[in-house]
Amino acid sequence: MFNVRFAARMASPVRILTAVPICDGHDSAINTINLEFIRHGIEVVYLGFHRYAGDIVRAAIQEDVGAIGISSYNGGHIDFFAEVVRQLRRQGAGDIAVFGGGGGTITPDDAKIMQRQGVDQIFFAGTSLAAMADYVRKHYGKPRKKRPAKSRSDLVLARELTAIEDAYAGQGRLKQPKSQKASARNSKVIGFTGPGGAGKTTLIDELVLRFLQNEPQARIAILSHDPSVIGEGALLGDRATMINSQHDRVFMRSMATRGQAGGLSPATESCLTRLTKADFDYVIIETVGTGQEALPFRSKLIDQTVLVMNPDYGARLQLQKIVMLDVADIVVVNKTDLDRAKAALSEIEHRLTQNKRKQELVATVAKRHRDPGVDELYEMITASSKGDKK
Amino acid sequence: MSKLGAVVESVEKHEKFVLEQVKRARSDTKFGREMTERWNKIKGGIPIGRAPTGLPLPRLALPEIDEPGEIARYLFGDGLPGEFPYLNGAYREMYLEPLEEIEIGSYRKSPNGKNGPSAKSNGAKPKVIPQEEPTRLFSGLMLAEDTNKRFHFLSAHQRSKRLSTAFDGPTLYGIDSDAEGVMGKVGEGGVAVDTVEDMVRLYDGFEVGAPNFSASMTISGPAPIIMAMYIAAAKRRFGPKVVPNLRGTIQADIFKEVQAQNETIFPTEASLRFLCDMIEWTTEQMPRWYPVSISGYHIGEAGSTPVQQAAYTLSNGFAYAEMLAARGVPVDQFAPRLSFFLDCGLDVEYIALSRVSRKIWAIGMRDVFGASPRGQMFKLHTQTSGRSLIAAEFKNNLTRTAAELMLAYMNGTNSCHSNSADEPFTTPSEEWIRLAAHGQAILLEESGIFKHTMNMLSGSPGMKAVERAVEKAILEEFREIESLGGVMGAVENRYQRSQIQNAAHRYEQQIYDGTRPVVGLTRYRDPNEEPPEIELARTPRKRQQLQVNRLKRFKKTNAGKADKALRKLAAVVESGENTFPALLEAAEVCSLGQITGCLQELVGHFRPMV
Fold first, then answer.
1. Average confidence (pLDDT) over A182-188
2. C-alpha distance from residue B445 to each of B338, B433, B435, B441, B442 (Å)
3. Preceding peptide of B134 cis, ω within 30°
4. Partner-chain residue, chosen from A23, A241, A370, that has the shortest CB–CB distance to B608
């Protein structure tokens, strides 16, 4: 099921999720702390600021983190932390630890109450960044405990994905999963790639919004990738921008490349296989921002590949070198509100006609609400899926 | 290319112009003589006051120069206080004690640059017009009536009622107090405002249309909605005629939210549209209102360097000016209604930061936007740095704030908030907020530092050195932003955000590697320090529930009218017309959350940047 050649690129790092509570935009402290954590080799899934307790808990379960770190500066921390702990326990994920801080706003007396309510640790004002990182590495890096067999499907799936990632890191052995009951639905797998800054994440999130709105039963999985810094951790920040994807019908997993070049992780293929066997209508996979020679998707599991570009790709000469233009099923030129858009579209169209195969080209402004280009892309993806779902 | 590039050019051109004037004053005898005569006339017209010790002192300090070139350099390069390019001050006189005794010359300007009665009135003692206090204390806690009580406490001893309002988290994000998941946040860190009724309670007992009253509201994401509620509440209490008399400021600065503070709720373009709609409406209908306070404070608090703070704030200001001009709002309608808000910390740059900002703003507004003098003035509110205050041995915060206050007034700020020492822990308690207010009174009223002579440090070599270095660095930042396509382009590239985050990270590292000593934390720490006894301002659950119940009742009473108002608002949003009049109607019968929800349905949600 997986290839041992790729194993042991990097040891499996400590993995945590950080966030700032609802109605709180104070992200300066957490941004600094995140940077320090990744310097200490920790993988940080960052959910962003102004986040509901429910969103934090859902994300922590799906990402299968060892702990949740909450940075609160706007008051109401006793209620908020307690709510996060309560929801974790209710969902059978009480093994995920909760820690946090709020400068001087969380007093020692508050901390006592919070710890009684199940919070693991509060860092007070004046704690050094290094001390925090040490604590996290020491306490939240232990192998995940087993969860009761009857856990909710998200919990099971999330832990299986962790096992796959750990196996590639040379830790633990991957049990061949028991033969999965063939899922009632078959997932359609769509791969998104393209250079950094083209707006892939925003585009995917806008598509998710359309899936959710138009298909009230559909379940979607997203595998999103961010680079690991060699020898250090990774900041997995896509969730912070993907506001529509924080939804009970969306299962999202942020993966660090863990030392592999090319925009994906060593464990991607196996994780993808696992996801296609689960109960998802769509599985979306997003690569790290790639270069012109990248050809990240070699998997046969991918039904449709989408290349997302930005009108500022440089001169026409550069266009000839972008290998993905030959293989993508759909080419999206995003940010077409920029000046160069018209020229870019016609150049790319010309380039695609040379390929002499059926490739679609679509212009989008993903950041615009209700963008007709994104609607068109949604139609392209769903239209083809109706006929040729495997 | 945005107009920022043109601003850089205009500042450089102005520097060249100043050098030419210096040269000319030295080579052209007639011009040189004119300079000397003008200088002597200015000096001769300066009144002399007396310190309580009897020491005579000029009301305006000027450098001791008599060489025509140097005179030209001062007059054109720095300008007298109240004169272009306003380096030394937006007004001729600030913070000075009312003049009682005139020894030399006739003096016609009263404090804050407004024309007062002539000082010479038949030998009789001149009538003293008390100056408006520059002290503003930001407050907001629990429910509207609790904040109202705090407002009365703070302003009881002041001639002018200047209320500065902090809102709680749900309000800042346009969310109602009865929304799922916000219980615990209601009334925390600021006041909960859901409806026009809360707004009535908030300023109860104050005559909001009176000349000695002004309200400032620190809110940006839903600012146009809150502004509409403020107007609706004023109309309820005093009738429609009060509207043109309303005086105050609403922060409404979307750019800094996207760059640093993160309290924004609609996509940036939509937010900017609602903002410009409001500015266009208020600058026409409420000529005494400041509809946007272009804020560096939160950029500084998020961790920027002082230069980044000034550069991003000024460039944001120029970007707003560019947008309003592009809409066809006349520059002399909007430019005088733009005001600024900066942070003042302990870094050395702060000794001159606002001085340089005034100069760059004036040159840019005059030469690029064609603004008249009132539109060239950089009107500034300063707040001492919250970030510089720490929890360990927190009473030291009094000294930090005092030093920052000194810097702020040396920069000629027009108004100032001093932080309370207990701020690392809580919304300030009455004890510490009183000390903070008195800190300003001690500096301005008790000490003689600012009372007798304006322009004390102008032209000092140290000040000049910092001014030069800061100006150069700000222009460098402008060039960088311009190369990314101006403010909007830089925002989309998350340039400002990443610069601020890097600076914040560096700052933290410097604290722990010892580059930045912090007394009581990394130096001279008391190993036996006990956690302080601090009175915490927390909103009891019962109060929060009261707010929720009142809101539910309001929604029930107004249900039918609210639907109608929201449908009308939606139609206006879709049509592209100015949304503010429809917001005004909706604010009468809808809650903040209802209006936010309606708008988000139409224009989408803000997508955060990491």
1. 65
2. 29, 18, 15, 5, 6
3. no
4. A241
- A200 lies in some domain: yes
Distance CA B66, CA B210 (A): 47
- 3-state SS, residue B343: strand
Nearest to B184 among A26, A76, A130 (CB): A76
Q: Using only C-alpha atoms, what is the Rg of chain A?
A: 21
User: Do the Cβ atoms of A36 and B505 come within 8 Å?
Assistant: yes
Per-residue pLDDT tens over the stretch B363-399 = 999 999 999 999 999 999 999 999 999 989 999 999 9
Residue B248's DSSP bridge partners are B215, B289
Domain match, A241 and A360 both:
yes
| Final residue of a structural domain among A112, A139, A166 | A139
> Residue for token digits 């005093």?
B238
Please enumerate in sequence order all residues whose Cβ is within 8 A of that of A121, keeping only pairs 6 or more positions apart, or say none: A97, A99, A100, A115, A135, A139
- Are A210 and A330 in the same domain? yes
Predicted confidence (pLDDT) per residue in B424-433, tens digit = 887 788 889 8
Q: Which amino acid is at B573?
A: V
Q: In a mutagenesis test of the B interface, which of A28, A110, A226 is the best target, namely the one with the most B β-carbons within 10 Å?
A: A28
User: CA B472 to CA B456: how far, in whole Å?
Assistant: 24
Q: Please choose, from the candidates B417, B533, B421, B427, the residue with its C-alpha nearest in 3D space to the C-alpha of residue B142.
A: B427
Q: Which of A111, A139, A167 is the last residue of a domain?
A: A139
Residues A256 and A353 in one domain: yes
CA distance A343 to A363: 12
Contact B408, B125 (CB under 8 A): no
Q: What is the ipTM of this complex?
A: 0.87
- Helices assigned H by DSSP within chain A: 28-39, 53-63, 77-90, 108-116, 129-139, 153-168, 200-214, 238-241, 268-276, 316-321, 324-327, 341-355, 372-388
Bridge partners of B109?
A: B115
What b-and-e string marks burial along B169-195, b requiring 16 or more CB atoms within 10 Å of the CB? bbbbbbbbbbbebbbbbbbbbbbbbbb
The CATH number given to whatever domain includes residue A269 is 3.40.50.300
* B531 — pLDDT class (breaks 50, 70, 90): confident
Dihedral angle of Cα B262, B266, B271, B274, to the nearest 10 degrees: -140
Helix (H) or strand (E) holding A290: none
What does the domain layout of chain B look like in residue ranges?
4-113, 134-250+574-610
For residue B101, what are the CA distances in angstroms to A186, B252, B452?
Answer: 91, 44, 12
In DSSP notation, A157-225 reads HHHHHHHHHHHHTT-S-PPPPPPPPPPSS--EEEEEE--TTS-HHHHHHHHHHHHHHH-TT--EEEEEE
Helix (H) or strand (E) holding B521: none
Q: A128: which chain B residues are within 8 Å (Cβ-Cβ)?
A: 512
- Sign, CA dihedral A228-A229-A230-A232, equals negative
Domain-located, residue A40: yes
For residue A140, what are the β-bridge partners?
none
pLDDT tier for residue A355 given thresholds of 50, 70 and 90: confident
Q: Which of A25, A126, A243 sits opposite B391 (nearest CB)?
A: A126
Are residues A247 and A361 both part of a single domain?
yes
Q: Do strands B48-50 and B56-58 pair parallel, antiparallel, or not at all (unpaired)?
A: antiparallel
User: Is A145 within a domain?
Assistant: no
Domain that holds residue A18: 10-139
The CATH number of residue A33's host domain is 3.40.50.280
Number of domains in chain A: 2
pLDDT value for B110:
38
Q: How far is B388 from chain A (nearest CA, A)?
A: 12
CA dist B419 and B398 (Å) reads 9
* A379 and A284 both lie in a single domain: yes
